[in-house]
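[step 3/7] fold_predict: job queued, chain A
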Amino acid sequence: MSDPIKRDGLRREFWTRVPMHKMTEAEWEALCDGCGKCCLNKLEDADTGEVALTRVACRLLDDATCRCTQYDIRHQFVPDCIRLTPGTIAKHMYWLPRTCAYRLVYEGRDLFHWHPLISGDSQTVHDAGVSVQDLTVSEFETPEDEWEDHIIEEPL
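[step 4/7] structure written:
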């Protein structure tokens, strides 16, 4: 017997039981904790492949909500914005934040207590201090040759 779909379109604790490639679109999108870290520009060392997180935000990131202001049509504005899917996650794993639910579920690990799917509250990611809320600088106001000055440790 299949899981009943709840009113919000999500099966109970789907992330623990449903393979990523069998998640509904609503379930896939619900994995996003709203931290905003994936929307920060990153610098990759060409020699080592190491990825450094900067506080330089994508032009579409709302610093207050940590959400993309144009999510559904973001590729019209940022053509190289990565569309993470069950089929592409392995290829993009190297730049996903360590706390990212997509990464955690892919690796078979538990979500953190502050994740909205666990806490039931989208504010807990900010209250826990793991989001980029009020941390970013604009990519329009920060020349690319100064991004190294804005390298940060991932908020954990």
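[step 5/7] annotate
The chain has seven helices and six strands.
Strands lie at 40-44, 51-57, 61-62, 67-68, 137-138, 151-152.
exit 0
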